[in-house]
Amino acid sequence: MQPARFNVFQRVIRHWDSLHPYNAAQILHLAGTADVQMLTDRWNQMLTALALGPVHVEGNRYWFDHQLSSPQAIHIPENGSLDQYMSEEMNRPFAPTGGLPFRPFVIQQNGSYFAGVIYHHWVADSASIRLLLHQWFLQCFHPAKARTIPLPIARRGYWHYFGPHTSRWDLDRGFVGMFPWFSRFRRVRRIESEGVHDFDMRFTLHRFPDGAVNAIRDTARQHNVTVNDLFLAAMAQACDQFVPAMETFRRHDLAMGTIVDLRARGQSTLGDAFGVFLGFTNVFIRPHELADFDRLLQSICRQNTIHKASGVPESSMMRMAGGLVFHRWFRGRTKELMNFYRKRFPLCSGISNVNLNGSWVQEYHPDPLLDYIRVSPTGPTMPVVFTTTTLGNQLHFGLSTRDSIVTPEHALALAELFKQIILNKTQPESAGV
Q1: Tens of pLDDT along 328-385?
Q2: Which residues contact 311 (CB under 8 A, 6 or more apart)?
Q3: Closest CA to 394 of 351, 355, 341
Q4: Rounded Cα gap, residues 127 and 272, in angstroms
Q5: Which end of the chain is less enclosed by CB atoms within 10 A, N or C?
Q6: Is residue 433 predicted with pLDDT exceeding 50?
Q7: Which residue stretches of 163-226 are H helix?
Q8: pLDDT confidence tier of residue 196, bands split at 50, 70 and 90
C-alpha cells in the first residue's frame, strides 16, 4: 500500500504517545450470549477485507499491510469489569510500528455482552472507528451487506480538507487570533498537584435515567443553547469542586476544551477515508459566572457561537502546528514540557460529545445493539475528559481521569455532581435555570 503522510494532529498525538499511551476505545453492547469464535473469525475477515493489517511507520509516513500475517485473537478479560478493563488497556502501549493498532475484546454479561476495540488513537478518529465497528457488526449479523473492498486511507492533510479555501475561515484572523487565545490562558487556574508528570488514567461509565436526554434537549431549546453548552456548564461547576485548579490573585478563571469532529463540519471530500481529523475549541469561565448557572450557560453559548461562525475548530490546525514547535523545543525534557502545558494551557477538563441518532448505530438499536460506548484518553493537556453519547432516548457518559490529579473517590463524586447538575437544571420546575 502506498504510504500516507502524518497529518498535523497525528504528529501531535504521536508526541503525546511518547509520554504515555494515547489510546481510545469504542464498544458495542449487544443482546444475547457472545459467540467468541464467530466474533473472532468475523473480526479477522473484516480486517482483511478492509486491508487494515499491521501498521508500519517510517519517518513521517505510515502504511497498513493488506493482509494479516496471522489471525488476531480476541481477548476475554478475566475480571469481567468493563471499567477496570478499560482503565488497564488505556494505559497499555501499542507497538510503535509493525503491529496491529487494534485490540479487540469481548466481555460477557448476564444476557448481554460487550464487543469492542481499544485502538492506537493516532491511526483513527471516532468516525473511522465507528465505520470499523459497523463493518464488524455487519460481518457478524448481515454478512451480505459487509464491505468487500479496502478502505481508502486519508492521504491529504488538514490544509487540503479543512483549510480556509475549503472551510471558508479567514487565514489572517485565524493566525492573529492565536495570540489573544494564548494570552487568555495567563488568567486561567493551573492544576496544582504533585502528580502532573504521572499520566495513568482511570475510566468509569455513568448513565442518565432513560428519557433524560429528551428533557435536556427541551431545556437547551428553551434557552437557545446547545446540549453541548449545557454539558460544559455542568462540567465547569463540577470541576470547580473536584479538580485541583487553585485560584490565585492573577489566575482565577477556568478553561475547558471541546473535541470537534471536523468531518461533520467541512465541505471536504473525505468520505470514508480512514484517518484522524479532529479539531478543538476552548471556553473560558470567570469566577462570577460559576456562581450563576444561567450566566455561565449564556457565556459558554456566546463563546461557542463565535467559534462556529469564525471557523475556530478548523483553524485549530494552526494551534496544533504551534504545539509541534513546542514539542521540538522541549525534546527530551519531559518535565519542562509538562510544566509548560500546566502553565500555558491549563485546561481543567474536556468533552467529546456525540449523538448517534441518525447514524448506522440507530438502525440496529435497541435490538440487538443495546448501546454504543466510547472511551476517550486524557493526555497531557486535560486531566478530566467527559465522553457523552446519545443513542435513542438513552444518554451516558464515560469519565476519564488522571489518577494522580483526581482521586478515584473524587472522580466518582465529580461524575455524580455533573449528573445531578444536569438533571436538576432540566426538570420542569427548573424552567428558569
Answers
A1: 888 878 778 887 887 788 899 999 999 999 999 999 999 999 999 999 999 888 999 9
A2: 164, 167, 168, 169, 170, 174
A3: 355
A4: 9
A5: N
A6: no
A7: 164-167, 171-176, 178-184, 212-222
A8: low
- The number of residues making up the chain comes to 433
- 271 and 117 Cβ atoms separated by less than 8 Å: no
User: Whole-angstrom Cα distance, residue 159 to residue 163?
Assistant: 4
* Mean model confidence pLDDT for the chain: 93
Q: Starting from the edge strand earliest in sequence, which strands make up the sheet with 254-261, in order?
A: 201-207, 394-402, 384-391, 349-355, 254-261, 278-285
Read off the C-alpha cell for 67: 493482509
- Block residue for cell numbers 469519565: 399
The single-letter DSSP state of residue 99 is: B
Burial of 156 (0-12, 13-18, 19+ CB in 10 A): middle
Report the C-alpha gap between 260 and 200 in whole angstroms: 24
Spatial contact of 274 and 153, defined as CB atoms under 8 Å apart = yes
pTM above 0.90, yes or no: yes
Based on the number of CB atoms within 10 Å of its own CB, is 318 exposed (0-12), middle (13-18) or buried (19 or more)? middle
Rounded distance between C-alpha atoms, residue 411 and residue 362, angstroms:
30
